[in-house]
Amino acid sequence: MATHRILIITNRVPYPLNDGGSIAMYAMIEGYHKLGWEVLLFSMNTSRHYVGLESLPEFYTQIKFQTFDINTDVKVVPTLMNFFLSRKPNHADRFYEKGFASKLEKIIDDFEPEIIQLESVYLATYLPVIKEATKAKIAIRLHNIEYQIWERLANEATSFRKFYLRDLCSRIKKFELNAWQSADVLIAITETDAALVKNLVSGKEIITVPFGINTKSIKPSQQPEKWIGYHIGAMDWMPNVEAITWFLENVWSDLHKELPDFEFHFAGRNMPGSFEKYERDGVTCSGEVADASAFIADKKMLLVPLRSGGGIRVKILEALTAGKLVISTSIGMQGIDGAVPGKHFLLAEEKADFIRQIKWAVNKKDQAQQIANAGSVLVQREYDQESIMRKLTKRMEDFLQ
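The chain above was modelled as a monomer; its predicted structure follows.
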């Protein structure tokens, strides 16, 4: 079978594997490599998520890998200039750097890829450069529908913040639509996202590829699990910040009164220092943890109070595989097709729902464990990385013919 060449471009180095975005990108890159594709990964090494290359695992020596240092910090003056003088979203402007564009041109010229896959829609700001340099097919992977995230955040906001977020949402939507139209193929993570895109752009090749995990590498905890709650996720992602703030400020006080021995532990990269003020009455803020598996090992219940966001929650799939009980909003479970409330997870939308479901689980541990077990079976059947990647590469090979 002929070897195909794919250039994958990411807006950060997908490592360490302690957040959903990094895990999703790494799994895709690893999947192509395992199935015999020649992979060149070109990653921005950003100021916000800088990774020392000496810390990378051996896998990065098995593929072609190049990086470019770039400062993506949010700065007041450029943000204001973008708001008043541009109609592009600030997110796209922050990721544009002439030096990166020049290096990208050279990589394309040397590697001669058949497919170029962008792992963030904001990297579409480089599409003019890419199209000038090559006739390769261009794929954009839709980790989320970005404008949808900001639309939901705007709906929850008030006063000037609502005005700003609505304006940002409008810019992002226009940018996304142009990017989708310019790509040759779109890789959606959920059928929900694919359907939304099909309603907004016509005649576009869309492949739905759910996030896959190496289910064989995830095992139930070998140490006793306590029926307490946890959450882990990148805390520089606004939907996570919003979710944990809402839970701690609206749910926790009354939940603690009804279950005084129940604990909630939360962790994540770039944890704002302001979250330390919630450390009381059974709440523990662990900040960024070195080993996510060790953090969750003794905790049974993943709480996902997401009220905005899109795509698919990688941490939920991992938790389900490991036999954890997931209590989540419908937005949190969005994209995990086949997951049935009360059968594979517990659904909680509002304050009273979270309190009721947590109390039920603590008091009905045997029945709750059956739900956790069913969730594990579902993920192992539907979200195994190898089988998903085989389907994707077959579609991509057909697309190249």
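The mean pLDDT is 91.
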